[in-house]
Amino acid sequence: MAVRWIAPEFGGPEVLTLVETEVRSPAAGEVTIDVRAAGVNPADYKHLAAARGSDRSLPLGVGYEVAGVISAIGPDTTIASGGGLVGDAVVAFRISGGYASQVTVPARDVFAKPDALDFPAAANLLLAGTTAAEALHVTKVAAGETVLVHGASGAVGVSVVQQARLVGARVVGTASEHNFALLRGFGAEPVGYGPGLVERMRAIAPHGVAAAIDTVGTDEALDATRELLVDVSRAVTIVGTDRNRAAGITAIAGALPASAAFRDAARARVLAMAADGRLVVPIARTFPLDEARAALELVRTGHPGGKVALVP
Ligand SMILES: NC(=O)c1ccc[n+]([C@@H]2O[C@H](COP(=O)([O-])OP(=O)(O)OC[C@H]3O[C@@H](n4cnc5c(N)ncnc54)[C@H](OP(=O)(O)O)[C@@H]3O)[C@@H](O)[C@H]2O)c1
Which end of the chain is more exposed for a tag (fewer CB within 10 A), N or C? Predict the structure, then answer.
Protein backbone atom coordinates (compact mmCIF):
# COMPACT_ATOMS: atom_id res chain seq x y z
CA MET A 1 0.00 0.00 0.00
CA ALA A 2 1.32 3.45 -0.91
CA VAL A 3 0.99 6.54 1.29
CA ARG A 4 0.32 10.14 0.36
CA TRP A 5 -0.25 13.45 2.08
CA ILE A 6 -3.59 15.16 1.58
CA ALA A 7 -5.16 18.32 2.92
CA PRO A 8 -8.76 17.57 4.00
CA GLU A 9 -9.23 21.31 4.55
CA PHE A 10 -7.39 24.50 3.68
CA GLY A 11 -4.92 25.88 6.21
CA GLY A 12 -1.30 25.71 7.31
CA PRO A 13 1.01 22.66 7.19
CA GLU A 14 -0.75 21.30 10.29
CA VAL A 15 -3.81 20.32 8.22
CA LEU A 16 -1.74 17.85 6.18
CA THR A 17 -2.77 14.25 6.81
CA LEU A 18 -0.87 11.12 5.80
CA VAL A 19 -3.19 8.46 4.36
CA GLU A 20 -2.78 5.02 2.87
CA THR A 21 -3.78 4.91 -0.76
CA GLU A 22 -4.25 2.42 -3.55
CA VAL A 23 -2.34 3.77 -6.55
CA ARG A 24 -4.17 2.80 -9.73
CA SER A 25 -2.38 0.95 -12.50
CA PRO A 26 -1.32 3.20 -15.36
CA ALA A 27 -3.69 3.47 -18.32
CA ALA A 28 -2.43 4.26 -21.83
CA GLY A 29 -0.49 7.53 -21.63
CA GLU A 30 0.31 7.12 -17.93
CA VAL A 31 3.27 6.05 -15.83
CA THR A 32 3.48 4.84 -12.23
CA ILE A 33 6.55 6.09 -10.37
CA ASP A 34 8.00 4.85 -7.08
CA VAL A 35 8.89 8.22 -5.60
CA ARG A 36 12.48 8.53 -4.33
CA ALA A 37 12.18 12.25 -3.59
CA ALA A 38 9.45 14.90 -3.76
CA GLY A 39 10.33 18.56 -4.28
CA VAL A 40 9.01 21.06 -1.71
CA ASN A 41 8.13 24.54 -2.97
CA PRO A 42 6.55 27.69 -1.51
CA ALA A 43 3.59 27.09 -3.86
CA ASP A 44 2.76 23.99 -1.79
CA TYR A 45 1.97 25.93 1.40
CA LYS A 46 0.47 28.86 -0.52
CA HIS A 47 -2.04 26.67 -2.35
CA LEU A 48 -2.77 24.82 0.88
CA ALA A 49 -3.68 28.12 2.51
CA ALA A 50 -5.79 29.39 -0.38
CA ALA A 51 -9.20 28.83 1.15
CA ARG A 52 -11.16 31.83 -0.01
CA GLY A 53 -11.79 32.07 -3.73
CA SER A 54 -9.93 28.86 -4.43
CA ASP A 55 -11.33 26.65 -7.17
CA ARG A 56 -9.39 23.66 -5.87
CA SER A 57 -11.50 20.81 -4.57
CA LEU A 58 -10.83 19.02 -1.30
CA PRO A 59 -9.12 16.87 -0.28
CA LEU A 60 -6.12 18.47 -1.91
CA GLY A 61 -3.03 16.57 -3.02
CA VAL A 62 0.23 18.43 -2.42
CA GLY A 63 3.46 18.62 -4.43
CA TYR A 64 4.17 19.51 -8.04
CA GLU A 65 7.36 17.58 -8.76
CA VAL A 66 9.00 14.25 -7.96
CA ALA A 67 11.95 12.08 -8.96
CA GLY A 68 11.81 8.32 -8.79
CA VAL A 69 11.82 5.04 -10.66
CA ILE A 70 9.21 3.77 -13.11
CA SER A 71 7.36 0.82 -11.55
CA ALA A 72 4.73 0.41 -14.29
CA ILE A 73 3.96 1.99 -17.64
CA GLY A 74 0.69 2.04 -19.58
CA PRO A 75 0.20 0.18 -22.88
CA ASP A 76 1.75 1.78 -25.97
CA THR A 77 3.17 4.56 -23.81
CA THR A 78 6.44 6.47 -24.00
CA ILE A 79 7.60 9.18 -21.61
CA ALA A 80 8.16 12.77 -22.76
CA SER A 81 11.90 12.31 -23.29
CA GLY A 82 11.35 9.07 -25.26
CA GLY A 83 11.29 5.40 -24.28
CA GLY A 84 10.53 4.56 -20.68
CA LEU A 85 10.99 1.15 -19.06
CA VAL A 86 10.25 -0.24 -15.63
CA GLY A 87 13.30 0.57 -13.50
CA ASP A 88 14.23 3.76 -15.35
CA ALA A 89 15.04 6.79 -13.17
CA VAL A 90 12.78 9.72 -14.05
CA VAL A 91 11.52 13.13 -12.98
CA ALA A 92 7.90 14.29 -13.24
CA PHE A 93 6.66 17.90 -13.39
CA ARG A 94 3.98 19.48 -13.50
CA ILE A 95 2.02 16.90 -11.58
CA SER A 96 -0.20 17.11 -8.51
CA GLY A 97 0.01 15.09 -5.30
CA GLY A 98 3.77 14.54 -5.37
CA TYR A 99 4.04 14.17 -1.57
CA ALA A 100 3.56 10.42 -1.86
CA SER A 101 5.46 7.15 -1.97
CA GLN A 102 4.00 6.29 -5.38
CA VAL A 103 2.12 8.25 -8.05
CA THR A 104 0.45 7.52 -11.37
CA VAL A 105 0.90 10.53 -13.66
CA PRO A 106 0.61 11.51 -17.34
CA ALA A 107 3.58 10.22 -19.35
CA ARG A 108 3.84 13.59 -21.10
CA ASP A 109 5.09 15.05 -17.78
CA VAL A 110 7.77 12.38 -17.21
CA PHE A 111 11.39 12.74 -18.36
CA ALA A 112 14.58 10.72 -17.90
CA LYS A 113 16.42 11.85 -14.76
CA PRO A 114 19.80 13.44 -15.50
CA ASP A 115 22.53 11.20 -14.03
CA ALA A 116 24.29 14.33 -12.77
CA LEU A 117 21.53 14.96 -10.21
CA ASP A 118 20.66 12.73 -7.27
CA PHE A 119 16.97 12.16 -6.55
CA PRO A 120 16.47 15.12 -4.12
CA ALA A 121 18.09 17.56 -6.55
CA ALA A 122 16.26 16.13 -9.57
CA ALA A 123 12.95 16.40 -7.71
CA ASN A 124 13.63 20.10 -7.19
CA LEU A 125 14.98 21.07 -10.61
CA LEU A 126 12.03 21.84 -12.80
CA LEU A 127 9.61 24.12 -10.94
CA ALA A 128 12.36 26.59 -10.05
CA GLY A 129 14.32 25.99 -13.26
CA THR A 130 11.46 26.59 -15.68
CA THR A 131 10.26 29.62 -13.69
CA ALA A 132 13.77 31.06 -13.92
CA ALA A 133 13.91 30.31 -17.65
CA GLU A 134 10.63 32.14 -18.19
CA ALA A 135 11.74 35.14 -16.12
CA LEU A 136 14.88 35.47 -18.27
CA HIS A 137 12.84 35.02 -21.45
CA VAL A 138 10.27 37.67 -20.49
CA THR A 139 12.98 40.19 -19.57
CA LYS A 140 15.01 39.34 -22.69
CA VAL A 141 18.28 39.19 -20.76
CA ALA A 142 21.21 39.11 -23.20
CA ALA A 143 24.99 38.74 -23.12
CA GLY A 144 26.85 41.69 -21.62
CA GLU A 145 23.80 43.16 -19.88
CA THR A 146 23.50 43.68 -16.14
CA VAL A 147 20.50 42.01 -14.52
CA LEU A 148 19.33 42.62 -10.94
CA VAL A 149 17.90 39.54 -9.21
CA HIS A 150 15.94 40.14 -6.00
CA GLY A 151 16.23 37.01 -3.85
CA ALA A 152 19.17 35.59 -5.79
CA SER A 153 19.95 33.09 -3.00
CA GLY A 154 16.51 31.47 -3.19
CA ALA A 155 15.56 28.40 -5.18
CA VAL A 156 14.35 30.35 -8.20
CA GLY A 157 17.03 33.01 -7.69
CA VAL A 158 19.91 30.53 -7.79
CA SER A 159 18.52 29.06 -11.01
CA VAL A 160 18.08 32.54 -12.53
CA VAL A 161 21.69 33.38 -11.60
CA GLN A 162 23.08 30.25 -13.24
CA GLN A 163 20.95 30.58 -16.39
CA ALA A 164 21.72 34.29 -16.73
CA ARG A 165 25.45 33.60 -16.45
CA LEU A 166 25.07 30.95 -19.17
CA VAL A 167 23.75 33.58 -21.59
CA GLY A 168 26.68 35.82 -20.65
CA ALA A 169 24.90 38.41 -18.50
CA ARG A 170 26.38 40.17 -15.50
CA VAL A 171 24.28 39.33 -12.43
CA VAL A 172 23.89 41.41 -9.29
CA GLY A 173 21.74 39.58 -6.75
CA THR A 174 20.28 40.42 -3.36
CA ALA A 175 20.71 38.00 -0.45
CA SER A 176 21.53 37.74 3.24
CA GLU A 177 25.23 38.12 3.87
CA HIS A 178 25.70 34.47 4.82
CA ASN A 179 24.66 33.59 1.24
CA PHE A 180 27.14 35.92 -0.48
CA ALA A 181 29.76 33.17 -0.96
CA LEU A 182 27.13 30.93 -2.57
CA LEU A 183 26.27 33.64 -5.08
CA ARG A 184 29.90 34.41 -5.84
CA GLY A 185 30.39 30.71 -6.49
CA PHE A 186 27.78 30.95 -9.24
CA GLY A 187 29.44 34.02 -10.74
CA ALA A 188 27.03 36.64 -9.36
CA GLU A 189 27.86 39.81 -7.42
CA PRO A 190 25.95 39.77 -4.12
CA VAL A 191 24.38 42.80 -2.48
CA GLY A 192 22.54 42.89 0.83
CA TYR A 193 18.84 43.74 0.80
CA GLY A 194 17.44 46.16 3.41
CA PRO A 195 17.79 49.93 3.90
CA GLY A 196 20.27 51.52 1.47
CA LEU A 197 19.79 48.88 -1.25
CA VAL A 198 19.49 51.45 -4.05
CA GLU A 199 22.68 53.24 -2.95
CA ARG A 200 24.60 49.97 -2.73
CA MET A 201 23.33 49.02 -6.17
CA ARG A 202 24.36 52.38 -7.64
CA ALA A 203 27.88 51.78 -6.37
CA ILE A 204 27.96 48.38 -8.10
CA ALA A 205 26.04 49.38 -11.27
CA PRO A 206 26.38 53.17 -11.69
CA HIS A 207 24.52 53.17 -15.03
CA GLY A 208 21.54 51.21 -13.70
CA VAL A 209 20.46 47.76 -14.77
CA ALA A 210 19.07 46.48 -18.07
CA ALA A 211 16.64 44.01 -16.50
CA ALA A 212 15.25 43.14 -13.08
CA ILE A 213 13.83 39.84 -11.84
CA ASP A 214 11.94 39.90 -8.54
CA THR A 215 11.51 36.66 -6.59
CA VAL A 216 10.59 38.27 -3.24
CA GLY A 217 7.70 40.66 -3.86
CA THR A 218 8.62 43.24 -1.21
CA ASP A 219 7.99 46.97 -1.56
CA GLU A 220 11.74 47.43 -1.27
CA ALA A 221 12.40 45.17 -4.27
CA LEU A 222 9.80 47.01 -6.32
CA ASP A 223 11.14 50.44 -5.36
CA ALA A 224 14.71 49.42 -6.18
CA THR A 225 13.60 48.06 -9.55
CA ARG A 226 11.86 51.33 -10.38
CA GLU A 227 14.89 53.39 -9.34
CA LEU A 228 17.50 51.35 -11.15
CA LEU A 229 15.82 49.99 -14.26
CA VAL A 230 15.96 52.03 -17.44
CA ASP A 231 12.91 50.39 -19.08
CA VAL A 232 10.13 48.98 -16.85
CA SER A 233 9.05 46.56 -19.59
CA ARG A 234 12.20 44.61 -18.74
CA ALA A 235 11.13 43.87 -15.18
CA VAL A 236 9.29 40.76 -14.08
CA THR A 237 8.02 39.51 -10.75
CA ILE A 238 7.12 35.97 -9.73
CA VAL A 239 5.37 37.29 -6.60
CA GLY A 240 2.58 39.42 -8.03
CA THR A 241 1.35 42.14 -5.66
CA ASP A 242 -1.09 45.01 -6.10
CA ARG A 243 1.81 47.46 -6.01
CA ASN A 244 3.68 45.52 -8.69
CA ARG A 245 0.56 45.52 -10.85
CA ALA A 246 0.02 49.25 -10.35
CA ALA A 247 3.64 49.87 -11.36
CA GLY A 248 3.11 47.98 -14.62
CA ILE A 249 5.52 45.17 -13.73
CA THR A 250 4.83 41.94 -15.58
CA ALA A 251 3.88 39.07 -13.28
CA ILE A 252 4.33 35.45 -14.33
CA ALA A 253 2.83 32.40 -12.62
CA GLY A 254 2.54 28.73 -13.45
CA ALA A 255 -1.27 28.98 -13.33
CA LEU A 256 -1.31 31.46 -16.23
CA PRO A 257 -1.78 29.71 -19.59
CA ALA A 258 1.15 31.48 -21.27
CA SER A 259 3.49 30.65 -18.38
CA ALA A 260 2.29 27.03 -18.25
CA ALA A 261 2.92 26.59 -21.98
CA PHE A 262 6.37 28.20 -21.78
CA ARG A 263 7.40 26.11 -18.79
CA ASP A 264 6.13 22.83 -20.24
CA ALA A 265 8.19 23.51 -23.36
CA ALA A 266 11.23 24.57 -21.31
CA ARG A 267 11.43 21.35 -19.26
CA ALA A 268 13.62 19.47 -21.74
CA ARG A 269 16.05 22.40 -22.07
CA VAL A 270 16.35 22.82 -18.30
CA LEU A 271 16.96 19.07 -17.91
CA ALA A 272 19.67 19.25 -20.60
CA MET A 273 21.44 22.04 -18.70
CA ALA A 274 21.40 19.91 -15.56
CA ALA A 275 22.54 16.80 -17.42
CA ASP A 276 25.83 18.34 -18.47
CA GLY A 277 26.45 20.09 -15.16
CA ARG A 278 25.64 23.65 -16.25
CA LEU A 279 22.75 23.89 -13.81
CA VAL A 280 22.88 22.58 -10.25
CA VAL A 281 20.29 22.48 -7.46
CA PRO A 282 21.67 23.22 -4.00
CA ILE A 283 19.84 21.12 -1.40
CA ALA A 284 19.40 22.55 2.09
CA ARG A 285 17.86 19.49 3.71
CA THR A 286 15.96 16.30 3.10
CA PHE A 287 13.17 15.06 5.38
CA PRO A 288 11.56 11.62 5.60
CA LEU A 289 8.20 11.67 3.80
CA ASP A 290 6.33 11.43 7.10
CA GLU A 291 7.86 14.77 8.19
CA ALA A 292 6.20 16.76 5.38
CA ARG A 293 4.76 19.29 7.82
CA ALA A 294 8.23 20.15 9.17
CA ALA A 295 9.62 20.39 5.63
CA LEU A 296 6.90 22.80 4.65
CA GLU A 297 7.47 24.88 7.80
CA LEU A 298 11.14 25.25 6.86
CA VAL A 299 10.24 26.45 3.36
CA ARG A 300 7.66 28.80 4.86
CA THR A 301 10.40 30.66 6.79
CA GLY A 302 11.47 32.27 3.50
CA HIS A 303 15.08 31.33 4.27
CA PRO A 304 15.40 27.58 3.73
CA GLY A 305 18.98 28.02 2.48
CA GLY A 306 18.46 25.80 -0.57
CA LYS A 307 15.90 23.33 -1.76
CA VAL A 308 14.08 20.88 0.48
CA ALA A 309 13.08 17.35 -0.48
CA LEU A 310 10.86 14.66 1.05
CA VAL A 311 12.30 11.18 0.87
CA PRO A 312 9.86 8.25 1.19
N1 LIG B 1 5.16 32.90 -10.05
C2 LIG B 1 5.72 31.70 -10.11
O3 LIG B 1 5.54 30.97 -11.05
C4 LIG B 1 6.57 31.23 -8.97
C5 LIG B 1 7.38 30.10 -9.14
C6 LIG B 1 8.22 29.73 -8.09
C7 LIG B 1 8.22 30.47 -6.91
N8 LIG B 1 7.38 31.54 -6.79
C9 LIG B 1 7.38 32.36 -5.56
O10 LIG B 1 8.61 33.04 -5.52
C11 LIG B 1 9.05 33.17 -4.19
C12 LIG B 1 10.45 32.60 -4.05
O13 LIG B 1 10.41 31.21 -4.26
P14 LIG B 1 11.70 30.33 -3.95
O15 LIG B 1 11.31 28.91 -4.13
O16 LIG B 1 12.87 30.87 -4.69
O17 LIG B 1 11.87 30.63 -2.37
P18 LIG B 1 13.09 30.39 -1.38
O19 LIG B 1 13.99 29.33 -1.90
O20 LIG B 1 12.48 30.25 -0.05
O21 LIG B 1 13.92 31.76 -1.43
C22 LIG B 1 13.47 32.91 -0.79
C23 LIG B 1 14.42 34.05 -1.15
O24 LIG B 1 13.89 35.28 -0.67
C25 LIG B 1 14.92 35.97 -0.01
N26 LIG B 1 14.28 36.83 0.98
C27 LIG B 1 13.59 36.46 2.10
N28 LIG B 1 13.12 37.56 2.73
C29 LIG B 1 13.54 38.64 2.00
C30 LIG B 1 13.36 40.05 2.14
N31 LIG B 1 12.68 40.58 3.15
N32 LIG B 1 13.92 40.84 1.20
C33 LIG B 1 14.63 40.33 0.17
N34 LIG B 1 14.81 39.00 -0.01
C35 LIG B 1 14.27 38.18 0.90
C36 LIG B 1 15.81 34.91 0.58
O37 LIG B 1 17.10 35.46 0.83
P38 LIG B 1 18.07 35.02 2.05
O39 LIG B 1 17.66 33.63 2.47
O40 LIG B 1 19.45 35.09 1.46
O41 LIG B 1 17.82 36.02 3.11
C42 LIG B 1 15.81 33.92 -0.57
O43 LIG B 1 16.73 34.34 -1.55
C44 LIG B 1 7.99 32.49 -3.33
O45 LIG B 1 7.08 33.48 -2.87
C46 LIG B 1 7.30 31.55 -4.29
O47 LIG B 1 5.97 31.27 -3.92
C48 LIG B 1 6.57 31.94 -7.79
Answer: N
